[in-house]
Design goal:
Elements (H helix, E strand, L loop, with lengths): L1 H17 L2 H11 L14 E5 L15 H10 L4 E3 L6 E3 L2 E6 L5 E6 L13 H12 L17 H5 L11 E5 L2 E5 L7 H4 L10 H7 L15 E7 L3 E6 L13 E5 L4 H10 L4 E2 L9 H4 L5 E14 L9 H9 L3 H8 L5 E2 L21 H10 L11 E6 L2 H18 L3 E6 L1 H9 L5 E7 L6 H4 L16 H12 L3 H18 L2 E13 L3 E2 L15 E2 L24 E2 L5 E2 L25
Helix pairs in contact: 1-8, 10-12, 16-17
Length: 598
Amino acid sequence: MLRLRRVLLVAAALLATGCAPRGDAVRAAAHGPLYFGDVTPPRANVLRYNNGAEPETIDPGLATGQPDGRLVRTLFEGLTVSDPRTLEPLPGQAYRWERSADGLTCTFHLRPGLRWSDGTPLTARDFVWSWLRVLRPETGAKYGGLLHPVAGAEAFNRGELKDEAKVGLAAPDESTLVVRLAQPTPYFLHLTSLPPCLPAPRHVVERWQERWTLPGHIVSNGAFVLATWRQNDRFELARNPRYWDAGHVRLDRVTAYSIEDLNTATNLYKAGALDWNTSGYVPSPFIPYLRAYSDFRSGPYQAVYFYSISVTRAPFDDVWVRRALNYAVDRNAIARDLLKGTREPWGNLTPRGYPDYRRPPGLSYDPEKARACLARAGYPGGKGFRRIAILFNTSEDHKRIAEAIQAMWTRVLGIPVELQNMEWGSYMQASTALQYDVARRSWIGDYLDPGTFLEIMRTGDGNNRTGWRDPRYDRLLRDAAVELDAARRMEQLAAAESLLLADGPVIPIYHYATAELVKPYVRGVHQNALDTHPLKDIWIDRGWRRGAPPLAGRATPEDRRSSIVRVAGTQPGFAGPPPAGGPRPRRAADGPPGTASR
């Protein structure tokens, strides 16, 4: 603890003196790239990164938050994985697949010799059991809706269908998984890399129940295994020797720190105690200054920051109250003044980046309309309006935004507002149980399609967390799900979003952009639209200063694009089963069709 305190004190001093972009830019021009702090690689072959808030869970069937997902997708692997640059599906536990001509049947062929980290064989039946576990109502998986494209899955998930044999999942043998879809789903291969589609070890879950993810109990199938866990401190991961591609994993260990405080995370990075400070944990006021440094990275990101409203509580059950709160938020002031231009003000739930999608007009700041809506609800000038609370999880940025909106609502509407701060786990429990008035939320797309945002507001979706329901909205989403005409489908989704914005259960605030710090010796962290980075492809380049080829002797995603063949009848797949322990299959430039995935 004393050593860590000393590191923080030194880092704080460095941070205070290190943000001088103009002088630094001049020195960089004269002496080469400028880096933010210590660039000495760690002695051991270990990656140290900030994972952010303490995860709510590392159970793949229950994970929803980004801190949860980042660890889950390191410990477990699905049928497919995402290309670290393009997000296109690559073979994971399945080395090839076929899709029927009508697009309703996907057949996955698992690699030979797959094993869990305890040596137990992993088979197609593990996937069937794991997916059904996510869909069982008693599991309470908030992400179960991602499996609804499977035939019978939605009815089973809702408890309307009792016979699990009628869900479109079958394992005719140990290495074959057959999935029947309710309708053609172009992005289905992207879903199979997401947490709810990752396998869970039945023999461990049934033995240890809710304690199965603890160190000493947990068994996984990904590139790394959980070695130790210190709550609210760190997760230590070790390379999994039984992983099918263990020979190509370059890191021996990974340390994932649970650091919520943005200043602390940036200080530790500056001091060289972190190799990677992930996006979302760089303080917004620092970003304009950090742009002068070569290890700062930023780019487009499919994510939106918004507030949700618990519509089951009075007075939020009145649409005019919800509209008043929306019109009273000055998004431009938050983005321009508070966040120093590092975020784009945003009035829609869906982000930009969908070429064929014409978003409806976004919500905007209009104080007069806000006051008129509140008066129509029966609270002219805020008279008689009860004190309300804004719930947010621990973060300096979340606090500053909540304070700004508190001031806006008080000034424009004349209503009393207080702030309610909780740690991540408590915040998730409160928001899920609708035990809040207004709550800070954000959503990251799972695939590059507006549906990945709009589906979370569907009645019964585990990520809705507002209590809002509208049969017209649900019907539009159902119609879009089976619509074969792409243009018509986008019109239906736009109509759904328009209805959502008019009813006001969400208050969009800004559009995210990634902002992260990555040491120059860390290779394999590539910017992509969904900010997902498979740790199996990351490594420490100790020769980075000497100009050694960073990828010498290392197969890259580009190298895996050369030898794809067409499997008879249907979809790009992969030729023949690879020998156990042999080389990884290679992906062609065209890749499986579909949209990019988280």
